[in-house]
Specification:
With about 1950 residues, the protein is of the alpha/beta class. The strands form 13 sheets. Strands 36, 37, 40, 41, 42, 43, 44, 45, 46, 47, 48 and 49 form a 12-stranded mixed beta sheet that branches. The longest helix has 25 residues, at about 1590-1615.
């Protein structure tokens, strides 16, 4: 037949196609299938116009065009099993049953899960030939079926209908394998058979729209993209022995683009077939009516279409990770780790090794870096030291192929990650776009991958995000916002929907790399292995063919194998950057030290000297002596010998330097001119710091108020703290200095320690070194010993050490924070609170963080919409503002780089490839400074070629340093910061600069300071004296300890250390030289803390109403709050405006204008600004040389920032109390013309960066944020996924926190990596807070102020307002008779009977009631009448600290009383039982049923009947019983409205003694009291008492107690026990908080001290004659109660209140008035005394009453009956005429009567007003008639005790509910004034008339009809009636 493909047809493929054709022919009714050979050899039809119904097949993949018909299954054979889940042979097929069994799976068969409609929650296990199943792309499945039963083992089922009958599927429709064969099955790591991925029967979920039929030029838009393949698992088992070898397959993805065929034989024996058969044309499985289905796509058509498209717009569809072959069958990659080491069967055979040529580094002057990509690298042999291998790129590939969890949960997802080919092509495009000096960044590459993946799955992503976004705490950031890449990366946008195949990759890669020239070289077409490609690369390197090449990309695309790749970096700059980035920061510093100690760096020094004499500083100094006309007027010192970089040299003799300093120093007295600009002023805490401190306090209170009970602030009486700082001596001294001046310690020390030692603050600050462990261990032990002290650990600079203690070596000094703060002792201590303070919180905000997002406090923005929120008149100048200056234009930015320095460094880096770049850059930098010093001191001529050895930037810095001090009369100057991380390099630079300075005679012109974190700050005595002169400090021993104290000192500070450790810099810092910092560690924390050294607070004066013109000096700052540095924007979001941050119209450098013409082009600096030339530099020796004002100078006088301002160090300058760490701040009120420091003190410093860092951070991403925000937060943190969004510029700090908490995970060496708990999404520590704020903004002052206000708050919490009122009515004393000895413990009954009863009321709370007439008493002068409502508000209180014996409300919950309260979760929840109790009382007229709520734990206090368990009585002890740990007297506390605030917790008051406490509550409040006090016994008053007053509660308590006493006596007699039952009860107010006892033995007189209630009661109960007293009480406390008392009477007979010991037996005939609301205790005491009963008050004890403003029996609201809203009703409206139309009130009648009598007594008893000699006679009761009326109480009972009324004229008569004892004869004993008023009160009108008639009142009293009244109550409310009359 002329087949040109003879020999290429393979049997397997032929059989497959033949089978398809035959089966299609048999089953097809209308369409004729294509011939076999057409399917084998012809190209694929581009059938885009496919009918819609082809894509709308039924879910079961119906193979017929006819409509479905009902299906009837063949009846099962007789006797077979028909149970669901079992086969007909009776064997179990369920997955849950066979999961652990060993199954025999024939070769070529796969285990499949069958879905049965009768078992929706389970799968049936069967084995199916893999040829009849679709591959991972949903294709290549043969029609038909071949399967085995895994239950009975029957094999050879050829029809799925037959097989479905065998396994009892019981279907109602035609059995379809596409519908019921659902899942692949595989075994996990435990060998358990589990459900895998769904079988991909159907792919096209969308619709393919028809487009142009021209195949070669056809493209698809994004919305026309066909969906990609579903994610499937293909597990083939070769035999039963493979079951044990099956691994646990994680969620992995099969790449359907270029996957091999189903079997190893077909994949290896078909070279003529394309390795990428899957296309967008045929996405489904073969159907019966297939139209020429072909698995192949012509590569030519794809190539033609891609060639005609520009590379920049090329976009290819993205697929998944490659799969591996196991035992000849396809198998999934178990995990990402296994994919990095794939099986050898999938990749080409590896060569033995690759030999690295000798002398590679020497020949090429570079150390190539191999970036591992896809596939294993061959073994490297030979000169392997000249080669570095990095897995950075491989990790990026693997991370980008791990889909987010959101896309993995729901069914067969069409979303797949990028394919290997796509990743490689995108990588090449990225490398091509890089500049010649740029280094590839993983972050950029990840964003490129992410964008390409998003664009290819945009519709699917939106579909998944809408219903399936997981709910994570806080805001969840997903990929909703389209990701756009920064800068040139946006050009890499590949949007074609074509499939990229391995065969196309090499030429597409070549095409992409062709635009770079020789920059990127691709080796792929002729390369068969990575080893071959590496060999070719090394050969080209040796031959010099890759000199202009930066990257070599090696591709291996062998047919039938996975694509392999790697990148060899050959650019010198890129190799150096990548090799140095492979070191950790500590390893990098060790490498630098090794190079310096080994002498390798000496070659660099010698080379620089060999360049010529014009660059040799030593020769220049020797050959050019100082010019007397040009040199500075300073003395000259001798030169020091030449130093080298490997060994340190000695410093000049300190003695000589001091002598020289004193010789050259000018005393202030001798100076004719001095600068008056320097001044130090003390400031209080700034408002924003106060706001942050209060915010911290509110978070602490929120923790305490939460229901978790993690912090009990009420149990702490004081605080202690320890501030942890990094191991920097300057930071330590700085914190000590702030603490000393903050005033916090004054709040902690006692009052007798006014003279605080200077060493005391050092006890509260500790450096985190090895000595810190002992300090923190002591603190934890102290916290354990002092549970009532709250300890606060302040972890300042918290991002410094976050290393895990388990991963840190003891010698590294890291891991201490984890070891100490995360120890179990600290975590479990309930009284230790940890506060992390940092400027870079994102190092701690990971998925495993220990700090709750609710416990984060972010520094708020000071400005919002240009409004100063805190009225500070300061603006923060931080990282964002620095970057803004680079974009403002028209002026020199504050952030810039030095191109001259960069070019010199790059040239030396190429010449010395082995040397670390830090060594080279440091040497060049110091060379620049030395040359600038030499030039500006006049040692060389003006024609010298300075541009070869220094830069304009360096010249500007040195010139500003030298001129400032020379021009100011007081020698004020600027600070220059040199940041050199390596300590060895910093020491070498310090020695070098000191030597040059000495040779130039500049030693007293400026200081050079070596900032070593481990050493104290040292400067020469000359400069110390200068600072002391400026500060006017007379302390001869004072020396500066912090950099802040170097304010205005001209100096160069060489700051060393791997990173800044929190050192604050003075405001005189003018230049921040960061040209030597490393560019290798691109982490957000690292970059921002280096830039944070230049952070500044700028004084923001009020702006003029109009914008300044071009010539204005007013500089406007950007009102947008700082966002990068974690300022909080919760309150107001920033709005951008068009103002530039810095505007300028003046030149920067002081060089002459003509100098710019002489600057060589190659020496200009980066920010497009030409600097002055070197040839015309004005020498400083000329008197007229003055620097011009800087273009960015801020003319405002700045305020003192907490971490920046200069602080006066002497203690005698400190005011008595300071609440801030803010210190003395220099101010320049009127800038001095000759003081450069005063002019520039309000200007932020200029920052010089390396070019590489400058290029990175000045580029903004799509959200407008700098590039550094997309970097990793910290070196110990990793991204959780590459599929993460970018930070948004509009994110607040809280949202940034949630972003990092979602998208970052801690690495194994992070201290939070161990903070994982199974089953929990978080594991927050409940007592940890995180305070974040920008660098240098004032965080130290804020948290110090927080400590102060927290201490004061705890003291406040331990204090309560106690009523502190002096006794009233004491002007006239009774006879000065001493009845009892002062130290008598108990009263004597015979003496008490002789002691007169004191009728006078002395309690100040009754200052507004009617006084009681007492013979011989003369009242005080007139008192101002006050309404009772006003008395409560004006009562005097004092703040008293709670003692350990105090009573508490429900807010107190310490460990000791948890069981007492019933809230401790460790104990059983207390159950209560409701018991009814009924008793009868004559006054009540009916049986009263009460209810007791008795907890199970308190039932032993009661007696119950044996049958039925009915409550019989409350058990009472015998009077003879004695128990030191028990209180015999039951305590009753009536209460209302105080379920939260009532002091019912008597555990501490009783000192743990057993006692019976009963709360008496109203019925409607029963539930709420039971909720708050579940372990308390409650007596519920009857319903009729819901509206009653305190009199009803006391009445019922007393009568119930007497009834119970009788029951107990009866019970004891029946049991044969004596009947001397204890007859006392305690009636206690619910506001009694503490008790005191009087100490008479004190030297200064009687003194009170706190005692427990247990001691008070046991002392009173031990009174020998107590049973003879009817009522006892104790004194009410007053701070003046014991002062001025000439004699001390221990006992008193008079009125008792608040805390009563009542004898219910002796007082049984005297009852409380159940109707009373006010003065019920006065009335009761008077009636007790009149009955002849003895009342006694124990003066040696006192009770303190707490002021409780909520609830109580006095809070009754008088409101109308028409509405529940309180209305203003006057006392005159409380009564009305009977039967009149009046506004009725919804208030008890008795209360209305009492209120009316109190407020209208001047109308009712006009003759009684202020008439003490003629009182109102009140019979048998006491009622308050107002403070201006005097009442005389008389009892009508026979044998009652009354005062003598002989000769006494009464001004009125009050009869209230007169009983039978009141007769007309009794009333005729008394004499009344003419016109005296009578008031008769009765319950109704009938009894009122009866009383008038029975008492014959009409004989002496005149009545009128209009004198009858009633209370303003409705008839149903039972109003009270009263009648008034006049005495005739």
């Amino acid at each position: 037949m002329g087949n040109s493909y003879a020999g290429q047809l393979r049997s397997a493929r032929f059989e497959e196609v033949l089978h398809n054709s035959i089966e299609a022919s048999l089953r097809s009714n209308t369409l004729v299938p294509r011939p076999v050979f057409s399917q084998l050899y012809l190209e694929t039809e581009q059938s885009f116009g496919r009918a819609e119904n082809d894509d709308e097949d039924d879910e079961d993949g119906s193979e017929s065009n006819s409509p479905p018909i009902p299906y009837q299954m063949k009846p099962p054979p007789e006797g077979c099993c028909t149970a669901d889940g079992f086969c007909q042979a009776g064997k179990d097929l369920r997955l849950s049953s066979l999961a652990s069994d060993t199954l025999d799976v024939p070769a070529g068969f796969m285990l499949v899960g069958v879905k049965s409609p009768s078992l929706p929650d389970n799968l049936l296990v069967c084995a199916v030939d893999h040829r009849f199943l679709p591959d991972e792309r949903g294709r290549n499945a043969l029609l038909g079926f071949s399967g085995n039963c895994m239950g009975c083992g029957e094999k050879g089922f050829r029809y799925f209908t037959e097989f479905s009958n065998h396994i009892n599927l019981k279907l109602s429709t035609q059995p379809k394998k596409q519908k019921h064969l659902k899942y692949h099955l595989y075994r996990n790591k435990q060998g358990i058979l589990v459900k895998g991925a769904p079988i991909c029967w159907r792919v096209n979920d969308g619709r393919i729209r028809p487009i142009r039929p021209t195949h070669s030029e056809s493209t698809l838009t994004s919305h026309e993209q066909p969906p990609n393949m579903a994610l499937t698992y293909r597990t083939a088992v070769a035999g039963p022995h493979v079951d044990q070898q099956t691994t646990d397959l994680a969620h992995t993805l099969i790449n359907g683009n270029h996957s091999a065929p189903s079997s190893a034989q077909s994949s290896l024996n078909q070279p003529g077939r394309s390795s990428a058969p899957a296309t967008h044309t045929n996405a489904g499985p073969p159907k019966k009516r297939h139209k020429g289905w072909s698995p192949d796509l012509s590569a030519n058509s794809l190539q033609e279409s891609t060639v005609k498209s520009p590379p920049a717009s090329l976009s290819l569809s993205t697929l998944s990770v490659s799969s591996v072959v196991t035992n000849g069958n396809r198998s999934e990659i178990p995990s990402l780790q296994s994919s990095s080491q794939p099986s050898a069967a999938i990749f080409p055979p590896l060569q033995l090794s690759v030999t690295v040529p000798d002398q590679l580094l020497h020949t090429c002057r570079l150390q190539p870096v191999i970036l591992k990509g896809h596939g294993p690298l061959p073994q490297l042999t030979g000169n392997v030291r000249d080669i570095l291998v990095s897995s950075l790129l491989h990790s990026c590939y693997m991370s980008s192929q791990t889909l987010p969890r959101i896309y993995q949960h729901y069914g067969p997802s069409p979303i797949q990650p990028l394919s290997t080919e796509m990743q490689i092509l995108l990588t090449i495009y990225y490398l091509v776009q890089l500049g010649p000096e740029q280094v590839p960044l993983v972050e950029d590459l990840e964003q490129i991958f992410m964008r390409s993946w998003r664009e290819s799955h945009l519709s699917e992503i939106r579909q998944f995000q809408q219903p399936q976004a997981p709910a994570v705490q806080g805001r969840h950031y997903t990929l909703e916002t389209p990701v756009s890449l920064p800068g040139h990366l946006q050009q890499i946008s590949l949007q074609s929907q074509q499939t990229l195949t391995p065969s196309q990759l090499p030429w597409l890669a070549q095409l992409a790399a062709s635009s770079s020239g020789e920059g990127v070289v691709v080796l792929g077409e002729d390369v068969r292995s990575l080893a071959q490609g590496l060999d070719q690369t090394f050969s080209r390197l040796i031959e010099g063919k890759l000199q202009n090449t930066n990257y070599v990309v090696i591709l291996v695309t062998t047919p039938g194998h996975e694509t392999q790749s790697c990148v060899v970096v050959t650019g010198k700059h890129q190799c150096r950057a990548l090799s140095e980035s492979m070191f950790s920061p500590s390893e990098g510093l060790k490498e630098i030290n090794l190079q310096l100690s080994s002498g390798v760096a000496e070659e660099l020094i010698h080379f620089c000297k060999s360049l010529g004499s014009d660059g040799d500083i030593d020769k220049l100094l020797e050959s050019n002596p100082a010019n007397s006309n040009e040199a500075l007027p300073l003395s000259r010192n001798q030169e020091c010998p030449e130093e080298n970089m490997s060994s340190p040299k000695k410093e000049p003799n300190s003695k000589d330097s001091q002598t020289q300093s004193s010789k050259d120093e000018v005393s202030p007295k001798e100076s004719k001119h001095s600068c008056s600009e320097y001044s130090a002023e003390w400031r209080e805490v700034r408002p924003i710091q106060l706001a942050v401190a209060r915010k911290l306090l509110s978070h602490v209170c929120a923790i305490a108020d939460s229901s978790t009970q993690n912090l009990d602030l009420g149990s702490f009486d004081r605080i202690s703290f320890l501030i942890l700082v990094p191991p920097s001596e300057v930071t330590f001294q700085q914190t000590v200095f702030h603490l000393r001046n903050s005033g916090v310690l004054q709040d902690l020390v006692s009052s007798d320690q006014e003279c605080m030692s200077k060493l005391e603050p050092e006890q509260y600050v500790v450096k985190m070194d090895r000595k810190a462990q002992a300090r923190i261990d002591n603190l934890t032990q102290e916290a354990h010993r002092n549970p009532y002290t709250l300890y606060i650990l302040v972890h300042d600079h918290a991002h410094w050490d976050i290393s895990s203690s388990s991963c840190s070596s003891p010698d590294s000094g890291l891991g201490l924070v984890d070891l100490l703060l995360n120890s179990q002792q600290v975590k479990d201590a309930a009284n230790i609170l940890i506060l992390h303070v940092t400027s870079f919180p994102f190092a701690l905000q990971t998925q495993c963080t220990r700090v709750s997002p609710y416990n984060e406090i972010h520094w708020p923005p000071a400005f919002s919409n240009d409004v100063d929120l805190y009225h500070e008149r300061t603006r923060y100048f931080g990282v964002s503002e620095l970057l803004e200056t680079t974009r403002s234009g028209g002026c020199l930015p504050l952030l810039r780089y030095d191109s001259s320095f960069e070019s010199m460094s790059s040239a030396l880096e190429e010449r010395f490839p082995k040397l670390h770049s830090a060594v080279i850059r440091t040497m060049v930098l110091i060379q620049h400074y030395c040359m600038a010093l030499v030039a500006l001191s006049g040692r060389i001529s003006s024609s010298h070629n300075l541009h070869k050895h220094t830069s304009v930037e360096t010249m500007e810095i040195v010139q500003a340093l030298l001129t400032a001090a020379q021009q100011c009369p007081s020698h004020h100057g600027h600070m220059v910061l040199l940041r050199i991380p390596s300590l060895a390099l910093a020491e070498w630079a310090h020695r070098r600069l000191c030597r040059v300075r000495k040779q130039l005679d500049l030693e007293n012109c400026f200081e050079i300071i070596l900032g070593n974190p481990s050493q104290t700050l040292t400067i020469r005595q000359h400069f110390t004296n200068q600072i002391k002169t400026w500060l006017k400090d007379q302390d001869c021993d004072w020396v500066p300890h912090t950099y802040l104290e170097l304010e205005a000192l001209p100096c160069i500070l060489i700051l060393s250390g791997a990173e800044p450790l929190g050192e604050s810099l003075p405001r005189s810092l003018k230049y921040c030289d960061l040209r030597v910092i490393s560019c290798s560690y691109l982490h957000r924390t690292t970059l921002e803390q280096e830039l944070g050294l230049a952070a500044y607070l700028v004084k923001a004066e009020s702006r003029p109403p109009h914008k300044p013109g071009p010539g204005s000096d007013v500089i406007e700052s950007d009102p947008e709050p700082e966002k990068l540095s974690s300022t909080d924007n919760e309150e107001e979001e920033a709005q951008e405006n068009g103002e530039t941050l810095l505007q300028s119209t003046q030149p920067v450098l002081s060089c002459q204008k003509s100098a710019a013409e002489c600057v060589p082009a190659q020496s200009t600096t980066s920010p497009n600004v030409q600097k002055g030339a070197f040839d015309t530099l004005p020498f400083l020796s000329k008197a007229q040389a003055q620097p011009q004002p800087s273009s960015q100078s801020f003319p405002y006088a700045p305020t003192a920032p907490q971490n920046q301002a200069q602080q006066a160090p002497v203690s005698h300058q400190m005011p008595p109390k300071s609440t801030s760490s803010d210190s003395s701040s220099p101010r320049a009120s009127s800038p001095h013309q000759n003081c450069s420091w005063a002019r520039g003190v309000g200007r932020p410093p200029s920052v010089l960066l390396p070019r590489a860092l400058y290029d990175i951070i000045t580029v903004s991403d799509s959200s407008g944020l700098p590039r550094c925000t997309s970097f990793l937060p910290h070196i110990y943190v990793a991204w959780a996924s590459s599929f993460r969004p970018l930070l948004s510029k509009m994110m607040t700090c809280t949202e940034q926190s949630l972003y990092y908490r979602q998208w970052t995970v801690p690495q194994s060496n992070h201290m939070d990596s161990s903070n994982r708990t199974e089953g929990r999404s978080d594991n927050f520590h409940p007592r940890r807070l995180l305070l974040s704020g920008p660098p240098q903004v004032g965080k130290t002052g804020a948290y110090l102020h927080f400590l102060g206000i927290l201490s004061r708050m705890l003291i406040r919490l331990m204090e309560v307002d106690i009523y502190d009122e002096e006794d009233i009515n004491n002007s006239v004393q009774a006879e000065c008779v001493q009845f009892h000895p002062p130290n008598a413990p108990w009263p004597k009954m015979d003496i008490m009977k002789r002691m007169p009863f004191d009728y006078i009321i002395h309690d100040a709370k009754y200052d507004d009631i009617s006084s009681i007439y007492c013979p011989g008493y003369k009242p005080v002068a007139e008192r101002n009448p006050l309404r009772q409502e006003d008395v409560y508000l004006r009562r005097r209180t004092s703040r008293i600290k709670l003692s350990k014996y105090a009573a508490y409300n429900t807010y107190h919950h310490c460990e000791q009383c948890h069981q007492y309260l019933g809230f401790n979760p460790r104990y059983q929840i207390y159950e209560s039982t409701l018991h009814a109790f009924t008793f009868t009382h004559l006054l009540l007229g009916e049986d009263i049923q009460l209810y007791f709520i008795i907890p199970k734990s308190k039932e032993h206090y009661f007696s119950f009947s044996q049958q039925g368990g009915q409550l019989e009585s409350m058990r009472l002890p015998l009077a003879s019983e004695q128990n030191p740990d028990c209180i015999k007297t039951p305590i009753f506390t009536p209460t209302t409205g105080r379920h939260e605030h009532g002091l019912f917790n008597l555990y501490h008051a009783m000192d743990g003694a057993s006692h019976l406490h009963i709360l008496v509550v109203k019925e409607y409040e029963m539930a709420v009291y039971k909720k708050y006090w579940p372990n308390h016994i409650m007596l519920v008053l009857p319903t009729i008492f819901n509206g009653a007053g305190i009199g009803a509660a006391h009445f019922l308590i007393k009568e119930l107690s007497y009834h119970n006493l009788e029951l107990e006596r009866t019970r004891r007699l029946e049991g044969g026990s004596p009947a001397d039952v204890w007859p006392f009860i305690i009636l206690a107010d619910d506001s009694c908080v503490m008790w005191n006892a009087v100490d008479l033995d004190a030297r200064s007189g009687p003194v009170e001290h706190a005692v427990s209630l247990k001691q008070v009661l046991q002392h009173m109960e031990a009174c020998p004659e107590l049973a003879q007293y009817s009522l006892c009480g104790i004194r009410k406390w007053s701070s003046r109660g014991l002062k001025g008392s000439k004699r001390w009477e221990p006992f008193f007979r008079g009125h008792l209140y608040d805390f009563l010991l009542l004898n219910v037996d002796r007082s049984q005939n005297v009852q409380y008035d159940q109707n009373r609301f006010t003065c019920h205790d006065v009335d009761f005491t008077l009636r007790l005394h009149s009955a002849g009963l003895i009342v006694c008050r124990f003066n040696n004890f006192s009770v303190m009453k707490k002021q409780i403003t909520i609830g109580g029996y006095k809070t009754f609201i008088i409101k109308t009956k028409m509405t529940d809203v309180p209305t203003s009703v006057g006392p005159s409206q409380y009564i009305c005429a009977p039967d009149s139309k009046h506004l009725f009130l919804a208030t008890p009648a008795q209360l209305l009567l009492e209120k009316y009598l109190q407020h209208t007594s001047q109308k009712l008893f006009p003759l009684s007003i202020k008439n003490y000699a003629n009182p109102v006679l009140s019979v048998d009761c006491y009622l308050n008639l107002g403070p201006e009326v005097t009442v005389c109480f008389m009892s009508s009972r026979p044998h009652s005790v009354n005062i003598s009324t002989t000769g006494l004229l009464f001004s009125g008569l009050l009869l209230c509910f007169a009983d039978a004892f009141v007769t007309s004869g009794f009333l005729k004993k008394f004499t009344f004034l003419k016109g005296a008023t009578l008031c008769v009160i009765s319950a109704d009108r009938s009894s009122l008339r009866q009383t008038v008639g029975r008492l014959e009142l009409e004989e002496e009293w005149r009545f009128r009809l209009s004198d009858e009244f009633q209370t303003a109550n409705a008839k149903e409310d039972r109003p009270l009636f009263f009648l008034t009359g006049k005495h005739i």
